[in-house]
Design goal:
There is one protein chain. The protein is an alpha/beta fold. Helix content is about 35%, strand content about 20%. The strands form nine sheets. Strands 11-12-10-9-13-14-16-15 form an eight-stranded mixed β-sheet, sandwiched between helices. A three-stranded antiparallel β-sheet has the order 18-17-19. A three-stranded mixed β-sheet has the order 20-22-21, with helices on one face. Helix 6 crosses helix 7. The longest helix is centred in the C-terminal third of the chain and has 23 residues. The termini are far apart.
Length: about 650
């Protein structure tokens, strides 16, 4: 019965030899006309059962038949002619709409969805309905809603190599963080000119225009023609008026949508991102290409206004985390290895690339936010115009000395003179006890702060105001990490009036109509900008310790490691700054050295009699000098064995 439904015939008419359905010829819905011509119902039934149905893949009551249609989009060759890309037999995933060629690969693909818990079927296996013109009609399953914003998607939207537009539902936290950062900037200056340089589906720019209203002027850009058409459809879907640039001629589309009541307006452009950022000035620029962002940083800082914000989302996580060293050297000009703090090191490498691009335009940066998640690295910086600001930012780009034995690390001192022995900068004595070279030089990377406490507090306030509950725990963790404290009660200092929402004490600004921030001339505005820049520096507060230590990485074998909260309390009682970190679930950000960290961890670890041997238990109960003596004896034995081997 499913075969007859796929072919568009009924089992009753198939068995009747003299019926009109049997006499009429039908084409295969899964093969093009040049491959399988229209034929009678009986022959079509045999074709479907022998070719498509026999090698199909079944999952959760659905059956994915093999497809021979030209599902790839129309490609343009060098001569300007358009032709369909060649594609052999393939399968369509009913969960992510990916196209896979082999049946075994399709089965493995579905197993990966099951292991990740992704069981929601978004695309049916049936043939899509077609309009009289022959174009497929979109179903309601292609429309996704996020933050009261509807976006229309196309097939293969989660695979950028197989689709013109790309949308990742797992980047929701990234979009929420950027929205809160823009909402904070909208409180400082109104209206703002914002740019989403790589719109794709346009969901981020539509969220800005829909929730921030007249305080922002949103421009969504994409160089792909199909993406621009999809962005305009999504604007009409959300009742947003499309403001086209001068080169576009879409008057007919606008006349057809005149009857709608618009709630806002969005400008949609089809230009190269570098060209657009060179032509126009913006207050807020967001860069989110597929991969690295280094090719667009120079253009972003060329025309961004003073005290504006540039947010950068890098999705080349594998390169920045040490899996492709040659690519990191080519893109970012730095040396990277896999360490226990590789996530924060990746964020600092991106900040260094942003600072160098800003310095080439005689501008400095103030890092407001740095977040590393599974799929992206987000860096949000404020632009400070001036050569002195650029020089100050450039001085914070330094190399890092990393010990390969104990993983202790320290930034090199500022200066042009060559040091006698760079190993002396490390707090550990591994170079004296271990033969050969024990440390490597990493970077250069950003050595300053990667959080701004005042800006994060205002982001938390905006998340409460707009009802964004998903990222509030992350923002609270970032605030504690920026202050390097475990204190849970946080207040947001913004003005004079106090409010309390969700357990957070909030102070909201109270401006009268005669306030100088509302009525100001050009000289007043320049003075306010200078005061605002000084206030931004004061908001950063004290510098937090660089990097973190993993309690799991440095745990002692055969012992019971104390709980993380208890261990952090012990570090705090010892007089050190301590906080959790979002980079690592078991990481601790502290200003203690690695030797102090291990000593306190060893003191509060208990012996496990079921796992630990008597020698290990004796080492744990012994004091610190005995541990040092044992280390020296082990070193001497190692040196003695090494000398014997040399002889």
């Amino acid at each position: 019965s499913e075969l007859e439904e796929l072919a568009g015939i009924s089992e009753l008419t198939q068995n009747e030899p003299g019926s009109q359905a049997n006499a009429a010829k039908k084409s295969c819905p899964l093969c093009p006309e040049d491959r399988f011509k229209a034929c009678h119902v009986n022959k079509l039934h045999r074709h479907l059962s022998n070719l498509h149905w026999k090698i199909s893949v079944e999952y959760a009551g659905y059956r994915m038949c093999i497809c021979h249609l030209h599902c790839r989009p129309v490609m343009t060759n060098l001569n300007g002619d358009q032709s369909n890309a060649k594609m052999g037999a393939h399968y369509h995933c009913i969960i992510c709409a990916a196209t896979i060629f082999r049946r075994t690969d399709m089965i493995s693909h579905m197993k990966r969805h099951m292991n990740k818990g992704e069981n929601k079927v978004r695309f049916s296996t049936g043939v899509p309905a077609r309009s009289p013109g022959g174009t497929p009609v979109r179903s309601s399953e292609d429309i996704l809603k996020e933050a009261d914003t509807n976006v229309q998607l196309i097939s293969n939207y989660s695979t950028p190599q197989k689709s013109d537009t790309y949308f990742n539902p797992k980047m929701k936290s990234n979009r929420q963080l950027i929205f809160c950062a823009l909402a904070v900037l909208a409180q400082e200056k109104n209206p703002l000119e914002c740019l989403d340089a790589f719109g794709s589906t346009g969901i981020m720019g539509l969220q800005w225009a829909k929730h921030l209203g007249n305080s922002v002027k949103v421009t969504i850009n994409d160089i792909n023609e199909k993406s621009v058409a999809l962005i305009r459809e999504n604007c009409h879907l959300n009742k947003m008026k499309v403001l086209n640039n001068k080169d576009d001629d879409d008057d007919d589309c606008e006349e057809a949508m005149e009857d709608l009541e618009y709630i806002g307006s969005v400008e949609v452009t089809k230009l190269d991102a570098n060209v657009l950022m060179h032509l126009r000035a913006f207050d807020f620029i967001h860069l989110d290409p597929f991969g690295t962002t280094v090719n667009f940083l120079d253009a972003a800082f060329r025309n961004v206004r003073n005290l504006g914000i540039v947010s950068v989302t890098s999705t080349d996580v594998s390169t920045l985390c040490g899996k492709a060293l040659h690519v990191a050297k080519r893109h970012y000009g730095c040396n990277i290895v896999r360490t226990e703090y590789f996530r924060e090191m990746a964020a600092r490498v991106v900040v260094a690339a942003v600072a160098r691009a800003a310095a080439r335009c005689n501008k400095g940066i103030d890092v407001l936010l740095s977040v590393t998640q599974e799929h992206f690295i987000l860096v949000v910086v404020r632009v400070l115009r001036g050569t002195s600001e650029a020089d100050e930012s450039s001085r914070k780009i330094r190399s890092l000395i990393h010990c390969q034995w104990c993983e202790e690390r320290i930034f090199m001192q500022e200066g042009h003179m060559v040091g006698d022995n760079p190993y002396r900068l490390l707090p550990c004595n591994c170079h004296e006890s271990m033969p050969g070279k024990s440390a490597i030089e990493l970077g250069p990377m950003w050595s300053g702060t990667i959080f701004n406490t005042g800006f994060l507090r205002r982001m938390l306030y905006e998340s409460v105001q707009h009802g964004i509950d998903d990222i509030q725990p992350l923002l609270k963790t970032l605030i504690c990490e920026a202050e390097c404290t475990t204190h849970k009660q946080m207040s947001i200092a913004l003005g004079q009036n106090n409010q309390e929402e969700c357990g957070v004490i909030i102070r909201t600004p109270d401006f009268s109509p005669d306030h100088p921030q509302i009525q100001q001339g050009k000289r007043k505005r320049n003075e306010m900008n200078r005061r605002k820049a000084k206030r931004q520096k004061s908001e950063a507060g004290t510098e937090h310790p660089c990097f973190y230590y993993s309690i799991h990485r440095h745990s002692i074998r055969g012992t019971n490691t104390p709980r993380l909260n208890k261990f952090m309390q012990c570090l705090k009682q010892a007089g050190f700054l301590v906080s959790r970190t979002h980079f690592e679930p078991l990481g601790v950000r502290t200003n203690a050295t690695l030797a102090d960290f291990k000593t306190i961890l060893e003191q509060h670890s208990t012996a496990n009699p079921t796992v630990a041997s008597p020698s290990v238990a004796a080492d744990i109960t012994s004091d610190a000098p005995s541990v040092e003596i044992r280390a020296e004896s082990d070193t001497s034995e190692f040196a003695e064995s090494q000398s014997i081997d040399d002889i």
